[in-house]
Design goal:
Blueprint: H1 2-23, H2 31-52, H3 58-81, H4 96-107, H5 112-134, H6 146-162, H7 171-190, H8 194-208, H9 215-235, H10 237-242, H11 248-256, H12 263-280, H13 291-296, H14 317-351, H15 359-373, H16 383-402
């Protein structure tokens, strides 16, 4: 009887942990609540797991391998570059990936925890963005910068859309429209252009993913929706100004003249700095925390004080990991993306639900969204983005392992 009670306690704590991870994602220090609940759930779950002798699924070891590869590569880079161990703050968070997967698998926590949490999180993000703009903030971002905030909103949207419970009535489509509207408003008020491609990908997969009937019709509808949204962004003056689309041509043209203080020109210059750093040391990179110094020493900052010189990462995951850790860093990044993606794909094929919904779908879409967002932002250079990835992907993969 005690064993069953302890299992129920562990499952309840794990449910609350999953809920809080999504619901409080954009709240300052919100993930600290998740950390406390996760630790409590782990302590409650361990005794019964040891007694039961259950075999951990093989898929979990792939998730563990992804985390250990990243930790090993970043630790070696830190040691060889003589950097402080504080450089491992963000990379060390990847240990939460196998931990969360194990916790979700062993407690049998329901996916509803993340779904309800994502709905609450989107409402909170929407409220934060509305209040900040009402108070005169130019670009909403909560306690983070607007780009990180928009990526967090996009993460919550993926969970809200793909963790939805089964249902064929009218309520679920209306609810999906509602959460998409909430996410779009928050992203628009953040002014983050990098999240737009991810939003389009979510809408596309929602309409087309997993469908076998009327696939071409669905694809045509999705294409029409995305084209309409694209035209709207370009033609509505307020939206074009909010996303600075009216500045694109001048921004790109300015880079040819050595102007690097605009968003796109700065990213092009950062890619140039990253490429030079990678060519200098292709195997090991210039050091895990050396990129900011390389930006300061670049030709763009010689004899000039400009905003560009205060940037500390490459605004591109592949460029950042390649420049700072070389080929080894690229391998680590690919492991962090591809190993969880392989596990999620296998779970989707095993499940064969015929619908683009469920924990494996959500995990796979999160990986895809991070890969897309990583084209314009160093996702794993920010604590919030890193934590969101490892916690949510870990929990989702662990839920999928339970169903294997």
């Amino acid at each position: 009887m005690r064993s069953y009670r302890r299992q129920d306690v562990a499952r309840g704590l794990a449910w609350l942990a999953g809920f809080s991870a999504a619901a409080l994602l954009v709240v300052p220090k919100g993930l600290s609540v998740f950390a406390v609940l996760m630790l409590a759930a782990t302590l409650a779950a361990l005794p019964d797991l040891w007694r039961s002798g259950r075999t951990i699924p093989r898929a979990w070891y792939a998730v563990l391998a992804a985390a250990l590869i990243v930790i090993a590569i970043t630790a070696i880079s830190t040691w060889t570059a003589g950097a402080g161990w504080t450089a491992l703050d963000n990379p060390s968070r990847v240990l939460l990936l196998p931990w969360c997967a194990w916790l979700a698998w062993t407690t049998g926590v329901r996916m509803s925890s993340l779904w309800y949490g994502a709905l609450a999180g989107l409402l909170i993000a929407f409220a934060i963005s509305i209040v900040q703009v009402w108070l005169g903030v130019e670009r909403a971002g909560g306690d983070a910068n607007p780009i990180v905030f928009a990526n967090a909103v996009l993460t919550l949207l993926v969970v809200a859309v793909f963790c939805r419970p089964p249902g064929s009535g009218l309520l679920m489509p209306l609810l999906l429209v509602g959460v998409i509207v909430l996410a779009n408003v928050a992203v628009i008020l953040s002014g983050s252009r990098g999240a737009l491609l991810g939003l389009g990908l979510v809408v596309l997969m929602l309409l087309v993913g997993g469908a076998t009937q009327y696939r071409w019709r669905r694809l045509s509808i999705a294409g029409g929706v995305l084209a309409t949204l694209f035209v709207t962004l370009w033609t509505v003056p307020w939206l074009s100004t909010q996303f600075r689309l009216d500045q694109l041509h001048a921004d790109v043209s300015g880079y040819a003249l050595g102007q690097v203080d605009k968003p796109i020109s700065a990213r092009l210059a950062l890619l140039s700095v990253a490429w030079d750093a990678f060519r200098e040391s292709p195997l090991t990179g210039i050091g895990i925390d050396a990129f900011e110094a390389r930006v300061d020493a670049s030709v763009y900052c010689r004899g000039a004080e400009r905003h560009f010189c205060g940037l500390g990462h490459a605004h591109n995951d592949l460029a950042q990991w390649g420049a700072t850790m070389g080929v080894a860093g690229i391998i680590g990044l690919l492991a962090l993306y591809l190993l969880p993606l392989v596990v999620a794909t296998r779970q989707i094929r095993t499940g064969r639900t015929g619908e683009a919904a469920g924990a494996p779908w959500a995990a796979g879409m999160l990986v895809a969204i991070y890969m897309v967002s990583g084209l314009t932002q160093s996702m794993f250079s920010h604590a919030l983005s890193t934590s969101a990835y490892v916690v949510l992907v870990g929990l989702l993969l662990g839920i999928g392992m339970r169903n294997e």
